[in-house]
Design a protein that fits this description.
This protein is mainly α. The protein is built from 8 helices and no strands. Helix 1 packs antiparallel against helix 4 and helix 4 runs antiparallel to helix 5.
Length: about 230
């Protein structure tokens, strides 16, 4: 595989997410239902078709990305450990950003994530479960599984692969705040390293999805508030 072929494949694999937020700038704030429909079409349907195409094109197989002969108990234990590491990075970065910005500007930094729709509380949590599960599944499957598999075919050295895959992961969060860029890079480093080391895809998906839910639902924000820290 040539460098140009690798770049074309990477653009193809990442297109749904780095294009995903463009349309949101043109939607009225009250168009929550339309936003959800477009999200399903772009985020779920498009990425599912990409996974199918990549599989048919022999860009990966389920064994090579850790999704065959799964030991579910071991995966769950590893997922809990991964989640703990993710939470430690998140809490540490939140503290650094909070006190750093407060010291430099005298202002409390804003939260990096957009507000959830103002629906019935049960619908809101259903929405949060949906975006957490889809983000955890698709982002780990594509950005750790398939993309790292492609990088390994052309690049040598795990360190370089981890760095490049993490930068790609930052790219898909371009529309969010700079604190989310930093967090995405750090978590991208962690997840890429763990993937290359252990190839436990379910554990990665579990840790990613649970972390996203805790973050989006405000659980982590409320926890940090107890210590006077603003969540990123």
């Amino acid at each position: 595989m040539t460098v140009s072929q690798l770049i074309i494949r990477l653009v193809f694999l990442t297109a749904p997410l780095w294009l995903n937020d463009f349309y949101k700038f043109y939607l009225p704030k009250e168009a929550d239902v339309l936003s959800e429909v477009l999200d399903v079409i772009i985020y779920v349907c498009w990425q599912t078709s990409i996974i199918y195409f990549a599989y048919q094109a022999n860009w990966f197989d389920f064994s090579s990305i850790g999704l065959k002969n799964i030991d579910w108990r071991s995966e769950f234990k590893s997922g809990c450990i991964y989640l703990l590491l993710v939470l430690l990075i998140y809490l540490f970065l939140s503290a650094i950003v909070h006190y750093g910005e407060e010291l430099l500007s005298g202002k409390t930094p804003p939260s990096g994530h957009p507000e959830p729709p103002k629906w019935n509380i049960y619908l809101v949590h259903l929405h949060l479960v949906y975006i957490s599960l889809t983000a955890g599944f698709f982002e780990e499957f594509i950005y750790r599984g398939i993309i790292i598999n492609q990088l390994e075919k052309k690049m040598t050295g795990k360190f370089r692969i981890v760095i490049v895959s993490s930068l790609i992961f930052v790219l898909i969060h371009w529309s969010l705040s700079y604190t989310i860029w930093v967090l995405s890079f750090l978590l991208g480093l962690l997840w890429a390293y763990l993937y290359l080391r252990e190839k436990r895809m379910f554990a990665l998906i579990f840790s990613h999805a649970v972390f996203d839910y805790l973050s989006f639902s405000g659980v982590l924000e409320n926890f940090l508030y107890l210590f006077g820290i603003t969540a990123i």
